[in-house]
Structures are given as C-alpha cells and as structure tokens.
Amino acid sequence: MRRSLSFVSSVILVAMAGLAHAQEKKVISTPDAPPAIGPYSQAIRAGKTVYLAGQVSIDPKTKQFVNGTIEEQTKMALDNLKAVLAADGLTMDHVVSTGVFLKDLNEFGKMNGVYGTYFKNAPPARATVEVARLPLDAKVEISAIAVHP
C-alpha cells in the first residue's frame, strides 16, 4: 500500500511539473513586425495558446505609421499579425479569436472586406467595437489569440 501511494504521489508530481512547464510564458518576437512601442510584447505563448498584441498600420521595415485608407490600414495590421504568428510557426488558420477596434464603425464593411481575405477557412470568433481613439490615431487596431495544434 505504501509503495502504491509513493508511486501515485510521484506520478502526480511529474504531471504537475509538466503542467507548470506547459504554462510558462514565452515571448514571441520578430523583426518582421513592428517592435512594441511600450512595455508589452508582440506576443506571449502560454502552453499552446498565443496571445498577440494589437497591431496598427506600422510598416515593420521603416517603423513608421502608414496613414492610409481603412483597407490599407487593415491589410497592414493583419500582415503584422501574420508575421508574429509565423515567428512561432503558426498561420492565420491557427487564430481562434480576434478583437477589432475601429475608429469609425461606419467603415466596418470596408475593414470586413479585407479581413475576410485573411480568414477563408473557419474564420475565428471576433469582437468588433468602435473606440474614441487608437494609438497613432490609427483607423483600426487588431489583436488575436491563436492555438498550436
């Protein structure tokens, strides 16, 4: 009986150590997306889940904000998210949820047209809200959550 309890205790400790290891935070970063402009990471991986910071229309090559149309800004934001995902071996197909922040909800249709070209198969869950103001006076900011298979 004592030997069985010892074995079970060992199995539980190993399982707990594995769970703790799986939940460690790992910073995901790439020069192919804009660097963080504050005290945050481009993305954090915890276990199999990757939490991506919101992206606006910053060109990763020039590190300058690109003040274009809502379509141009949406494309650049999604391209930046795509680059961060790629840095952790993921694609847009691994995205399970997004948050879209719009300066003007009247531009939803235009944003949605571009957005739909990035998520053709099983699009992620999404919340879209209008906000008073975004960093750099952007028209759109998009964040995401992705999961490793």
UniProtKB/TrEMBL annotation:
* InterPro entries found in the cross-reference section: RidA (IPR006056), RidA_CS (IPR019897), RutC-like_sf (IPR035959), YjgF/YER057c/UK114 (IPR006175)
Pfam families xref list: Ribonuc_L-PSP (PF01042)
Q: Which residues form the signal peptide?
A: 1-22
Q: Which CDD domains match?
A: YjgF_YER057c_UK114_family
Gene3D superfamilies with a match to the protein in the record: RutC-like
Record's GO cellular component terms: cytosol
What does the similarity note say?
Belongs to the RutC family.
| Name this protein carries in UniProt | RidA family protein
Q: Which organism is it from?
A: Candidatus Afipia apatlaquensis
Q: What is the lineage of its organism?
A: Bacteria, Pseudomonadati, Pseudomonadota, Alphaproteobacteria, Hyphomicrobiales
